[in-house]
Please model this.
Amino acid sequence: MKIRTSLLGALICLCSWPVNAELSIQITQGVDNPIPIAVVPFSNESGGFFSEDVSQIVINDLEQVGEFRALSRANMLSMPSGEQEVFYRDWRILAQDYLLIGKINQQAGSQLVQVQYEFFDINREMKLAGEVLTGSVTQLRDIGHTISNVVFEQVTGIPGAFTSEILYIVSESAGPETSLFRLEKADYDGARPQTLLESGEPIMSPSWSPDGQDVAYVSFETDLPRIYIQNIATGQRRQITNYPNINSSPVWSPDGTMLAMVLSK
Model:
């Protein structure tokens, strides 16, 4: 039997959620002359150990998009952590256009950290941005991505997307003619992967809700492709379609109240 697939424009009304802007990042190519930037290791004011290197996270973010080239730490003439320690001529000698410095402070007995950063334009000898970000030690990677967003927008005029997350499917062999499928989310760079669903049947077409709290996807756990919605924080999930034949490709409406899909007949 030949199945014809067509878009039926099926819309399912859902409960209402607040809407946030959706971020996406697309890397098509690098540039011939990447922008030189010096990212100085952030000073550890409290002397404790941190599992994340905030300055290295920023370097990785900026170099990953192909528009920046970070100065090697071994070539730096100084390691300033505050504006009063910045000498623009040192960085001009090293042919740097921009400079990022910072410091991290954690109070004794507390999981809270304060990350202060300052961003400078070397050629114009001026500070472009600077603030103090507060979070837990487990949020240092998030803080690094947030700083990367600021730097990227200050230089290019385009909002950064380094705080974005991605959804993807992992398929692994679990034995002869057997596969294990996982729906995972992670930072845009693949760090901090988290398994949302594990199944012995295929999972397809994950789609974020506009508020980022839920994900819609296709699962074959009932032998036929059916669409499910799962809350990311709680893991609670529910099947929302049971139409004949194929139910696939869920896409949220911009306000998150409806879901479009592809059905076959």
In short: The longest helix spans residues 140-156. Confidence is low (pLDDT under 50) at residues 1-25. The domain at 35-156 is CATH 3.40.50.10070 (Rossmann fold). The helical segments are 54-64, 88-93, 140-156.
